[in-house]
Amino acid sequence: MRADPIALGGWQRRERTLTIAVVGIFALVLLRLFVLQVLEGSRYRELSEENRIRVEVLTAPRGEIRDRKGRLLADCVPSFTVTLDPFDKAYARAPARMDSTLRALGPILGADPAELRDKIQRERKISFLPIRLKRNVDIKTVAFVSEHRDRLPGVQVESEPLRRYPLGLIGSHLLGYVGEISDKELADPAYGDYLSGDLIGRMGIERRYEKLLRGQDGKRFVEVNALGRKGDFLGEKHPVLPKRGTDLTLTIDLDIQRAAEDAFEPGARGAVVALDPRTGEVLALASKPNYDPNEFSNGITQERWDELSGGGNYPLFNRAIQAAYPPGSTLKPFTALAGLEAGAITAGTYFAQTCTGEFRFGSRLFGCWKHDGHGSLAVHDAIVRSCDVYFYQLGLRIGLDRLAAFMSKLDLSERTGIDLPQERRGLFPDQNWYDKHFGPGRWSRGVILNLAIGQGEVNLTPVKLAQLAAFLANGGTLWKPHLIRSIGSALPRSEAPDDSMSRVVAVSERSLDTVRAAMASVVSDPQGTGGQARVDSLTVAGKTGTAQNPHGKDHALFICFAPVESPRIAMAILVENAGHGSTAAAPIARKVLQAFFHRAAPESAAVLTGR
Amino acid sequence: MFSARFSPDIDRPLLLATLLLTLIGIAFVFSATSMPSASAEHGLYLKQIAYLFLAMLLGALIAAVPYRVYEGKTSVLLYGIGLALLVLTLFIGHVGLGAQRWLGWGPVKIQPSELAKVATVILLASQLADRKKDWTQIKNLVRPVLTAAVPCLLVLKQPDLGTSIAFVAILFTMLYWAGLPFLYLFFMITPIVNVALSFFTPGWLLFLGLLALILYRSRIRLLPLLLVVGVNLIVGIATPQIWNHLQPYQKQRISTFLDPGADAYGAGYQIIQSKIAIGSGQVFGKGFLHGTQKALAFLPEQHTDFIYSVVGEETGFLGAAFVACLYLLLILRGIKVANRARNRFGGLLAIGMTSIFLYHVLVNIWMTVGLAPVTGLPLPLLSYGGSSLVASFLQVGLIQNVAMRWREY
Question: Is the minimum CB–CB distance between B1 and chain A shorter than 8 Å?
Fold first, then answer.
């Protein structure tokens, strides 16, 4: 309310400073306008009338994927893509011209003009880039577009790398495929550096290592005139060159992968996972039926997609990691190990009741798969001949708590952590689980009988079973299965094991030896169930399994490792609805082992002396 | 009725500039949406005219009530309403990005950040009007800084970096006007410069050297000196450390946030097309409605953020420079009014409102001529948009309010 002479005086000075600053800033604006409009105006007038400046994306080729021996599994080849620039002047003046362009293009691209129109309407809102109408067009289409350029304003043929899988069906689940990014992903800030129409890895290695494989797209501003000729637009930044994606070398051995996939009967469904028990490296990972990832690179029709993602067989489904099955008798070695470790039995323990083909628990009868019985046997023969009655009694003696505790030490209810997306978790239930799902006191203690023989609520993925087989093979180490041998030009991973990749489970050498000896006899002993996995001059340890399946025929399973003295390969095999493990799964193991050892024979001596 | 109350001291050049710019705006909203390819936007100029009537009414109302009424408790109330609207925006924005369409907000959507800027200026003016306080004391600066920081952060969360920086620009202009030495303002921004430079070691060292020299020569008190040194040291050392510990996707988010143009091909393209549009206008322009770039380049923003490039293309250097000069006139009159006012609150009010214009006009025009990144700020009075127009008229109304009552203490 009183004047403040000092403040007013201050304002005077401040007004002058501020006025000078504002006038200066506006003078700069006017100067800039003068340069743009008066000095350089004629150049810009030319650009606005005749030419068009547009952005051209220089798509980075994805990194190559090779097997451990350097054989190519995925690469990129040049291809042609037909694009349309919806911001072309012709369409700004007469939007209806778009329809005639699309009608002219429709037949040669084999696409419905209305669908193309929808795609354009959707994508022009997202970026100012020309829109990809069709990838990987043939030379006829390229010729058509250049001949009819005057009728097809804004249409260009651009060169783009195309993802190619030279082996087709081989390793499809392992590799995954690439497809156009979805609108839902585009809306997610995690995919902020993707543009509509960009390719992104789907499933498998392509998905898991998308960040490495993708590389970085470049761009440049080009001038396009009415004749479609291009030149770099001078006066703007230099083109940003694309950065090729990083190459990956996998731990996969193509020979074994191929042998595993070829070992299946045509039309069979199942999975094989082979690991190196010394390192946790995945040597082969197969799932049947498979699909050709090349189909996705070109863009896939809805009908074909429905066929692949469903179609009764679900070919896209990776049975090696996404499906969990009751392990059946392949779990028995681990039940035996639990019993030995818990002190419930020794190698020489015989149970009171001999196997007569059935076992009475309360009012219920539990059968042995061999209806006339196995007689009296100890743990070795019980594994060799897969006697259910022995394991019922063993299960009862160990008890649910101790058995579940041991299985949880082996992470049966956890993922293995393999570097592939969408791995499923297995399950070995404990008391809490039953209480939670059936209600306290509402489940029978008889569940232990089923669990002990790998039936009932327990279920495991093939990759988990392979990890368990490797655990027996290497004497107590649980490896996180992994697929990358080297990234880019880096040297292969050193042989020294990385702590985060493995965990040693304390089990006594004696118990392990008992179980391993029994598993060797499963294959070598004439009474063993795994005779079909026998390979000449090779000691193989294995265990068959037959998982009861309420929905149809039993699933056949087999786990194994070889050579018994110093194992270099451990495997799990699953064949859906194929019946008994000894006849349906063990022969597949034999074929894979033959491929592995036949080829690797010279190396074996060095390895033997090395270990 | 009202006219009787408006004093002859109303600032006529300011009024003229405002009305001329508004009319030019409506004409170019019409032009920018007149192409056949923009059929969905053909009627927008009519809406803009409707907004204009609302804006004039509200502007006249806010000018008619003696501005002293807005001081003190009223300013706190207005500020509170502004903040509440901002919070509400965040909340509704969270419920669903796509849901807005269904809620039928569509055409009557208001942009609370525009109104929050006006409310923040009123409260800041009210706080800084207290001449008993020594505004070079750090403890006295806490309140005004917080007053600007809260809406600034709320808008940042939306996220709208351009508008949130507006709050910083407003605060600094008003602090300067309130008597804070320029040097202090410099010190206040040093940590920000520090963060930006900390990835470029030679620049950072040069900046630290410069800062040390200025600190040495400035002879400021010990406490502020230690504070400036300490904050700068911590920020300079911590920034690269924190950055290195971020996940790649977090880094990606931050760089996209700071520079939306970096990863979207669209933004760089818009700037080039804007420059071609303005440049191709040459001296006299292509004539009203005869621009060609507008059709292809900026959809859907040619009538909002990029309206100045349509002006430049169709009216050439003469038209674009004329519009720029009208803005210059508007801002200089604003400063004049602020200077003339005898009341400290009135002066601060006028300078704050003027600073909003200054910041928006500069950032928007610089963007269209390729001197600033794409930020998404409208050009006041010219760009299509009801909230922006109403806010602009409230600002002009408040400046006129002070102009008419300049004699009052």
Answer: no
Top mean-pLDDT range of A268-282, B259-273, B292-306: A268-282
Q: How close is the nearest chain B Cα to the Cα of A152, in Å?
A: 17
The two three-digit tokens of residue A137, written as one number: 């067009």
Tokens at B97, concatenated: 């990005």
Q: Contact, B140 vs B133, CB < 8 A?
A: yes
Does A127 touch chain B if contact means CB atoms closer than 8 Å? yes
Domain of residue B100 covers 2-404
Contacts of A4 in chain B (CB under 8 A): 131, 344
Tokens representing residue B362 in the block: 């500069």
**What mean pLDDT is reported for chain B?**
83
Q: Does B137 touch chain A (CB under 8 A)?
A: no
Residue A45 is nearest to which of B282, B325, B362, comparing CB atoms? Answer: B282
Assigned fold of A254-292+318-610? Beta-lactamase (3.40.710)
Could you read off the pLDDT of B209-223 as tens digits, one per residue?
888 888 878 777 777
Query: A195 to chain B nearest CA, in Å?
Result: 8
Judge whether B48 lies within some domain. Answer: yes
Q: Which residue of B has its CA nearest to A5?
A: B342
List all residues of chain A from 213 to 232 with a beta carbon under 8 Å from chain B.
219, 221
C-alpha closest to that of B159 among A154, A515, A286, A189: A189
Q: What is the ipTM of this complex?
A: 0.87
Answer with the residue of higher pLDDT: B404 or B89: B404
pLDDT at residue A582 is higher than 60: yes
Q: SS3 for A423?
A: coil
Active-site residues of A, by number, are 329
- Inform me whether the pLDDT recorded for A129 exceeds 60: yes
Radius of gyration of chain B (CA): 22
How many CB pairs below 8 A link A and B? 161
- Test A221 with B253 for CB contact under 8 angstroms: no
Which 3 state secondary structure label does DSSP give B181? Answer: coil
Residue A465 pLDDT: 97
Flag whether B380 is in a domain: yes
Give the DSSP letter string of A134-195.
EEEE-HHHHHHHHHTGGGSTTEEEEEEEEEE-TTTTTTHHHH-EEEEPPHHHHTSGGGTT--
Q: What is the pLDDT of residue B352?
A: 97
Report d(CA A306, CA A308) in Å as an integer: 5
As a whole number, mean pLDDT of residues A187-191 equals 79
pLDDT of residue A474: 94
Q: How confident is the model at residue A229, as a pLDDT?
A: 56
Q: Does A57 touch chain B (CB under 8 A)?
A: yes
Domain boundaries in chain A? 53-88+112-250, 254-292+318-610
Nearest beta carbon to residue A33 from set B269, B292, B320: B320
Q: Residue window 491-550, chain A: list those with CB within 8 Å of chain B.
A: none
Higher pLDDT, B236 or B360: B360
Q: What is the dihedral of CA A24, A25, A31, A32, to 10 degrees?
A: 170
Give the pLDDT of residue A224. 66
Instruction: Say if residue A376 is exposed, middle or buried (CB neighbours under 10 Å; 0-12, 13-18, 19+).
Output: middle
B281/A92 Cβ within 8 A: no
Its CATH architecture, for the domain A53-88+112-250, is: Alpha-Beta Complex (3.90)
Nearest CA in chain B to A91: B37
Give per-residue pLDDT as tens, A413-467.
999 999 999 999 999 999 999 999 998 888 888 899 999 999 999 999 999 999 9
A89 chain-B contacts, CB cut-off 8 A: 292, 295-296
Domain total of chain B: 1
Residue B168 lies in a domain: yes
Cα(B387)–Cα(B380) distance, integer angstroms: 10
Assigned domain for B409 exists: no
∠A244-A250-A252 over CA atoms, to 5°?
150
Contact A176, A203 (CB under 8 A): yes
